[in-house]
Amino acid sequence: MAGPQLLETVAGEWLRRVQAEYGSAARTHSYVGWLIQIAAPPELIRAGMRIVDDELEHASLAHAVVVATGVSARPAIDQATLGLPRRSEASLFDELLVHGIDIFCLGETVAVPLFVEMRSRCTQPVAKAALDRIVRDEVRHRDFGWEILDWLLSVDRARVEAELPGILRAAFARVRANYGEAGAAVDERPTPAAELDFDWEGARAWGLIPLPRYAEILARCWERDYRPRFGKRGFEAVAEAAWAG
Ligand SMILES: [Fe+2]
Ligand SMILES: [Fe+2]
After folding, report:
1. Which domains does the chain have, with CATH numbers?
2. Is the pTM of this model over 0.85?
3. HEC states along 26-92?
4. Which of 46, 127, 167, 177 lies 20 to 30 Å from 205, alpha-carbon distance?
């Protein structure tokens, strides 16, 4: 049976996920507003609105996991970090490109294998139900990102080509800062002693994964997703240079 330390950790992680889902909903909502302003194709706008709705559902499901732990805690939603601030000097096209790459092409693409990994040894029913729904939706959120990129390319390929190297370098740096470098500095995890004591079997049953797994999954995602997907659009060299940093 799960001990109190485990349940505290589980509740803390799922609370963080509640906050993250609100963040995703808010960013996508801002993004969809820009898509409407630029008169993007209605099917892209509707796909974006559906994502906002999904993210709210993910927040509810994540909150249900916190409740299931029996730990009473409330998410600390930081209003200042919700939504996308519009840079006054940037065109709407550039904003859609920068954030489309960052949030959807990179963020939602790596989210798919991350959530698959979280679900792979998850047995606690409430957590499993949340991860089942999240995994299903994230595939569509990933596809949305690449559809957006294709649409931006169809509107102004030259502009995307000019901006992509800088955008990708910054976006890869951010995703690495979030998930760590494989085999390198991922050491904000518990000290070895604390880690030995920690019941990882129990935590995995609730859908948690150890920090080093994030870095491994990111490295694999570069090989399996980022590189071929940018390559298919003629950007393999650009992506490789940006990934190399
Ligand atoms: Fe989500
Ligand atoms: Fe998502």
Report:
1. 4-244 (1.20.1260)
2. yes
3. HHHHHHHHHHHHCCCCHHHHHHHHHHHHHHHHHHHHHHHHHHHHCCCCCCCCCHHHCCCCCCCCCCH
4. 177
